[in-house]
TrEMBL record:
Its main location: membrane. The lineage of its organism: Eukaryota, Metazoa, Chordata, Craniata, Vertebrata. This is Hepatocyte cell adhesion molecule-like protein. Keywords: Glycoprotein, Membrane, Signal, Transmembrane, Transmembrane helix. It comes from the Eukaryota. One of its GO terms (cellular component) is membrane. It comes from Callorhinchus milii. InterPro entries: CD2/SLAM_rcpt, Ig-like_dom, Ig-like_dom_sf, Ig-like_fold.
Amino acid sequence: GWNSELMVRPLTVHPYYTARVHLIKAGIVQFRDVFLNDSGVYELTTDYLGPVLRNNNRDVFEVRVFEPVSQPIIRVSDAFTNVTLNCSVSKGTGIAFYWKKTTYLESENFTSSGSVLVVKSGCEEQAFEYSCVAENPISQQTSVPVTIKLCAESQDRDRRRWILLLSLIPALLVASVLCYSLWWWRRRKPCFMCPQSNTTTNI
């Protein structure tokens, strides 16, 4: 607080912030040499000590300290029905991610609440480039784009046909082995129900 009629303005600051908090003028405080753990809610109280009685002012404000983001990296996971893109950064706080899709003709932005983008397999002939953008209030970085070419309709049908054919081969092999084993077992099994021959050969 300070005396409104005197030039001397006593300033009371928490010992932890004594060397870093400076009063520029009435109501304006400068916070120097901030760290990430300085983020939080602070209170500024102004007491008037002059002959005129005035209520003190109490202001509450929030300080948010951000670390600049590093360049994002995209990891690609390819499944049968879709492709999953996972974007991550090694540094940065308060990060928001969004995706940029680029073709030969146009560029589109994808807003996403997370860092994962799932691209469903379709029937497109042209290739697409996907870039991940990571940003916070003080910095922005863009990843190296990755190229994804979605299968054409004919290629998709051929792939399903080959997968179905390959899945039938083990079943056919098992059935063949079982049939052969059954035939061999029946051939080797002695016939107890067969009539015995009563023919006697005389010499």
